Amino acid sequence: QVQLVESGGGLVQAGGSLRLSCAASGSSFSISTLRWYRQAPGKQRELVAQISSGGTTSYADSVKGRFTISRDNAKNTVYLQMYSLKPEDTAVYYCNLQTSLFGTNYWGQGTQVTVSS
Prior knowledge:
This protein starts with a strand and ends with a strand. The strands form 2 sheets. Strands 2, 4, 5, 6, 9, 10 and 11 form a 7-stranded mixed β-sheet that branches. It has a 4-stranded antiparallel β-sheet with strand order 1-3-8-7, with no helix packed on it. About 30% of the residues are buried. It is about 0% helix and about 50% strand. By secondary structure, the chain is mostly beta strands. It is built from no helices and 11 strands.
């Protein structure tokens, strides 16, 4: 069983930055794909960024050049560094881990990011 705990959310002014962290339990972290999703009020959850076990990253067009996903396998932690934040980045951000063996998905509880204009 995998547990994910996000932290680092908060209130920030437009143009500011935040770094989200997601700490995972379990032994499969290093061989899993890790993702950050977000869900704004009244909208569907959307994929923001992902990083493979090999370190390959991809991003939603809306955050390219502003957000960076990274992982520290020694700490079982994935990060989302967010720069140049915009009000439209306001959402609850969720960490997701997908195991390599069966593709099982695990989710964190979410952390609120609010960007004021």
